[in-house]
Structures are given as structure tokens and as C-alpha cells.
Amino acid sequence: MSNFRFLSFALALVVMQAAVPAASLPAAPAGDAALTALAKDYYRAEWLFSPTGATGTGVHDYDDRLDPVTPVAIKAEIAHLHATLNALAAIDAATLSFDGQVDQKSLDASIRGNLYQLEERATWQSDPGYYTGIGAGGVYAIISRAFAPASKRLTLAIDREAQLPGLLQQAEKNIVPTLVPAIVAKVAELDAQGSVDFFSTDVPRAFVGVGDAASQARFKAVNAAVMAAFKSYASFIHTRVAPKAHAPYAIGAATYRRLEQLQNIEDIPLDKLLAIGEARLARDKADFIATAKRIDPKKTPGQVLADIQKNHPTNAQLLSVAQAQLAQLVSFIKAKHIIDLPDAPIAKVIKTPQFAAQTTFASMNSPGPLETVATEAYYNVTLADPKWPADKAEQHLRFYTPYWLLIVSAHEAYPGHYVNYLFNKEHDLSLIRKIEWNPAFGEGWAHYDEQMMVDEGLGGGDPRYRLAQLSGALWRDCRYVVGIKEHTQGMTVEQATKFFMDNSYQPQEPAFREAVRGTMDPLYGYYTLGKLMLLKLRDDYKTKLGADYSLAKFHDELLSHGDPPIYFMRKYLLGQDDKGSLL
Predict the structure, then answer these.
(1) What pTM was estimated for this model as a whole?
(2) Contacts by 249-252, CB closer than 8 A, 24 or more apart
(3) HSE (CB half, 13 Å, CA atoms) of 558?
(4) 221 with 285: CB under 8 angstroms?
(5) What is the pLDDT of residues 530-566, one digit of tens each?
(6) Burial environment of residue 89 by CB neighbours within 10 A (0 to 12, 13 to 18, 19 or more)
(7) For residues 389 and 280, what is the distance between their CA atoms, to the nearest angstrom?
(8) Are 502 and 538 in contact (CB under 8 A)?
(9) Among 27, 532, 100, 566, which Cα is nearest to 281's?
(10) Structural domain boundaries of the chain?
(11) What number is the average pLDDT over the span 407-419?
């Protein structure tokens, strides 16, 4: 919805309310008030358990704290989650509006997902990277946004850093090496080493010339202690965890299906889910081969892609190329009337912080949903590590061919994640709807955008853009299949790496990264799964509206309800009596 249309609607509503006596206005269902109160209490407790998460959300009451990670604190959090589930269940759905019912179900699923991580998977005992994320991520949240003057944020960073060695010492007590999968230990060690780089370069750079001499001296002292603590933690993982880290990473078929139902609401049998993914992979692969033949019929599809990938920015050029592409995408969206873009600055492209660079090529770092001051949006792009050998750096940079980089930028920013965030800010959503995020919808929307934008003419009909889009589709299709097979059929990381190489034409380094991510993110097929659900919803919406349908109308309506499960999106767009399946 454009700003003009939103303002017109708001003005009309004011006029209607002024003309109708207050007594005749329908009262909000009784359950909605109870749910609102419950949500406020729930999130307040969650922010105390995760002050670093609160900072990322845009709540700045706890910026001087790190998350408590003692077993006592974690057990208290588990008890709080169970108590909240019971309180949620005590609210009769019949006393809720439809929005309230969606919020109730969304919060219930989110809490059950958190309990799975804390109780069943016991991430706090089985993943050393859990603590790296809290420590480095908590300080990154302080330096990455100007929610307070730099001198104030320096003080907050000092306060958090002062607690970091203690957090890592507690982590060494919490981690049970025999519960850690080998690949998880390997990634956690790399992340800990990356954190040393982060605190030696990015953090000091953020506070050059900030504060007085005393503040700078204290900062240098605590920062040095943090670097030493992370070096020690990396050594702990290498010497005491990795040798005993032989736990399976697979979660099993029953758990996989249960987590999918939490995400999607509708129960989709696992064999059906896999068959749909394999069919989509086969279809996209056939389209990829046909498109490659259009570009050069004398070469194999892999050779065609390899030729295209030779044309990529250097490490020094990458960020500026990505920034220029964001402006290009905004112009294209407006010219084609793809969606009514809210009025906001174009996102800023920056390099991915080193502590988070092991398993991602690009990501969108939008402001927290409750942030009111530091509203800058950052598009993170992962540079090749200067310490890598030349062949590894070349493999990494081949990912950023200008054709594929444009598609990635559509996914992450325009009209993908950043535009989704802007719509959420523009609409009057409940607290639950502002904070909770369904990955099949959020990532499905961004992945859908890649195909939709090329369908609408992005790239001017140049088949190299279609090949890039299909390359990305194959990559996500492989995630879909690998996630299921790694966790329910015994697929190894080596087999998954080969699967990515054979079916998405990726070189070994990025294929291996994808295979590794699957071990830690079982449901990472939500990209393709969500895209397929949205394509079906779009077809059903088009049938319903007939001559009144337009692509922009579909997109505006789709993004006006936050990020709940697509199961509920169907009911918002097609009517609450919709009985259509997700797929």
C-alpha cells in the first residue's frame, strides 16, 4: 500500500469514527486485551533473558547487559516459556478477533520452537557457536546503529565487553563435547577465530576518536581482554570439544515433520514434502539447461555458468557495485509498478562482520521492529577473506557475478526483505505481529521476488539474468532436498556437497558451505517451500479478483499483515473460509 493510499484510508477512518457515536463502535473481543497483556509480559521477560536480542529488536533498556547463560538462568527461561504456553492456551480462541487468533497461534509456534532449541536440541550445551553469537553479536548491535551518541554507545560496548570473558568461561562449563556434532564444532571454532578479527578491527574502528582519554583506555583494556578470551575459547573448542564432538546432527523424521507443522500450520506429510521439492528441482534444472543452451549451445550448462561467473567484481569493487544495483532495482520497481514502495532511504551496503561470515554470502540487516531512532538499514555482503589462498577467494567471488548479484539484491533489499520490513513499519501491527517472523513467509517472499522480478523484465530479456535466477532457484531447491535428506535419510555433508555441485552447478567451496548450513538449519528449504506457497496463493488471488487483479495490488495486500504463516495469509487474501491447500 502506498503512503498516499494508507493516508487516505486513515483519514477516511477518522471521518467515520467522528460520525459514529463512540457507544455504537464495536468493542474489541475480550480475548484480544488478554492476549495483548500477555504479550507485553512475555516479551519483557524475554528481553531480560536476552538483552542482546532486545537491542536488536530496538529495545534499549538493557544495552549494558549480556545474556545470562548459567544453567539456572536457562532453566528459568524454559520454565517461563512453558508458563506462557499455558497462559496462551487458557485464552479461548472464540474470544479473539481473527487477528488475535493469528497472533495466538504465531506466538505459540514461536515459543515451541524456542523450547525445542533449549530443551530438545539443547543448543546451549551442544553448540559452542551459541555463545559466540551472543558475545560478538551483542557488541555488533551496539556499534552497528546510532541509536545513541557515539560516546554513550562506547560506554555500553565497554559494559558488554567487560562481561564477555565471564560469558565464555561459563560457556566452557556448559558445553558437553559429546553432544556436539563434529561439523558444528568446526564452524564454531571458525566463528570464534572470526570474533578475534572482529574485535581487533571492526570494533576499534567504530570508536576512533570517541570519548575521553579515560574511556579510550578502559575500552582498549576490555577489548584486549575480549580478544584473549575468544582466542582461549577457540582453543577450548579445538582441543577439548572437537576431539569428542561425534554427536549426530540429524534431528530425525518425526521431529522434522513436527517443526514443519509449527512453521506451516498445515501438516504436510514428509514424503509429499520431499516429492514436491524434488519435482521443483527437476523443473528448474531443465529450465536452467534450456537457458544455458540459449546462451551458448556448444557448451555444457556448467561451462556456460562458469564463463558467466568469470565476470565478477574484485573484492575492492564488490560493495560499490552492490550499492549501485540497489538504486537500479528501485527505479525498475517504480517503472513497472511492481509494488508501492514506502518512502525510505535506500539501504546501505556494508561488508558482513567477520564473526558472521562463515555461512552467509549476503544478508539484510534492517532496523529492529521496535527501533525508533537508529533506522538505518544495512545490506551485508561477504568479502573474500584476505587470508584465503587465491583459488579459494576466486571461488567465493564467482558467486557475485553482476547477474546473480542483482538477483541477490532483489532478494535481500528490493523488493525483498527490506521492503517487507518497510511495510511492517508502515502498518499498525500488534506487538506480536511486529516481532514474530515466519521463515517460510519471510524467506519465501524474498525468494519469490527473484523469479517474479525477472518474469517482469529485470535484465531486459538477457538470458544471463534468467540463468542467474535459475541458478539461485537450484541452490534453494537443493537446500530443500538436502535439509530433508541430511536430517531424515542419513545424507552426509560430503554427499550433500556433491549434491549441490551436481544439481546447482556450484563449485566445491560454496557447495560445502551450503551442506554445512543444512546440518544446523534443518528447515532451510523454507525458501523454495515459501515461494511455491506464494505462487499458488497468487494464482488463487488472481482467480478470485478477476479483472480487478494487479500484481502491485497482490503485493501490497500480501505485505500489509506482517509475517505470519502463509496458512493465515491465504485467509487474509482469500477469506477466512478459505479451504485451499498451501501447495
Answers:
(1) 0.89
(2) 249/181, 249/183, 249/184, 249/486, 249/487, 249/519, 249/520, 250/486, 250/487, 250/488, 250/490, 251/121, 251/487, 251/522, 252/487, 252/488
(3) 33
(4) no
(5) 999 999 999 999 999 999 999 999 999 999 999 999 9
(6) exposed
(7) 36
(8) no
(9) 532
(10) 30-121, 126-244, 260-312+401-531
(11) 96
Give the number of other CB atoms < 10 A from CB of residue 75: 12
pLDDT in tens, 80-112: 999 999 999 999 999 999 999 999 999 999 999
* 37-46, 191-200, 505-514: least confidently modelled range: 505-514
Antiparallel, parallel or unpaired: β 378-381 and 362-365: antiparallel
Side chain identity at residue 320, one-letter code: S
Q: Could you give phi then psi for residue 367, rounded to 5 degrees?
A: -60, 160
Q: Please state, in angstroms and rounded to a whole number, the distance separating the CA atoms of residues 287 and 271.
A: 24
pLDDT score of 220 more than 70 = yes
CA distance 493 to 470: 24
Task: Tell me what pLDDT residue 357 has.
Answer: 63
Using alpha carbons only, what angle is made at residue 130 by residues 125 and 131, rounded to the nearest 5 degrees? Answer: 100
Tell me how far apart the alpha carbons of residues 364 and 495 are, in angstroms, rounded to a whole number. 30
C-alpha cell at 405: 548479484
Nearest one of 39, 37, 34, 40 to 108, comparing CA atoms: 39
Q: Model confidence over 373-404: pLDDT tens digits?
A: 988 899 988 888 888 888 888 888 888 888 99
Pairwise CA distance, residues 60 & 64, whole Å? 9
- Strand, helix or coil for residue 380: strand
Look up residue 503 and give its three cell numbers: 544439481
User: 13 — phi, psi (to 5°)?
Assistant: -65, -40
What order of strands is seen across the sheet that includes strand 362-365? 348-351, 378-381, 362-365
Bridge partners of 381, per DSSP, are 351, 362
